[in-house]
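User: Here's a protein and a ligand (iron/sulfur cluster). What would the complex look like?
Assistant: Let me lay out the input and then the predicted complex.
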Amino acid sequence: MQPLIISACLLGVNCKYNASNNKLDDITIQKLQQKYNLIPICPEIMGGMPTPRNPVEIKNGKIIDQKNNDYTQNFQKGAQESLKIAQLFHAQKALLKESSPSCGSHTIYDGSFTHKKIPGMGITAEKLSHNKIQTYSEENVKILL
Ligand code: SF4
């Protein structure tokens, strides 16, 4: 089976900033398991962030929380570690949680902490994409099934 990198929160791991998850429905997970060798990652944890943690957004290329604390280095490390894992498994595809500052493939929050989304990629999605790994999100997961 071909490998598929997947955001761990989409599989039900409570690794979100608020210690919850973004679990896909069971049928979708079953279909993915039948077709792929699922490789879960959580770039933020792999970058050394605790759970729970402050919500962050991308602003002017930096990852900041509402008090302007800068976590850019953690997020870059998480992206690098994610790429290492993807390369270890020769993965060519990744299913990542949309709009996350790490995992967003098509949209991210705009840095104003007002729930406003803009087109863009999270740090890890961008890193994988630049290394020829095709990224998908839960919003277009049907393409993978
Ligand atoms: S970094 Fe990615 S895998 Fe981890 S909680 Fe956020 S969206 Fe999910």
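Summary: Strands lie at 2-7, 36-41, 56-59, 62-65, 93-96, 107-109, 117-119, 134-137.
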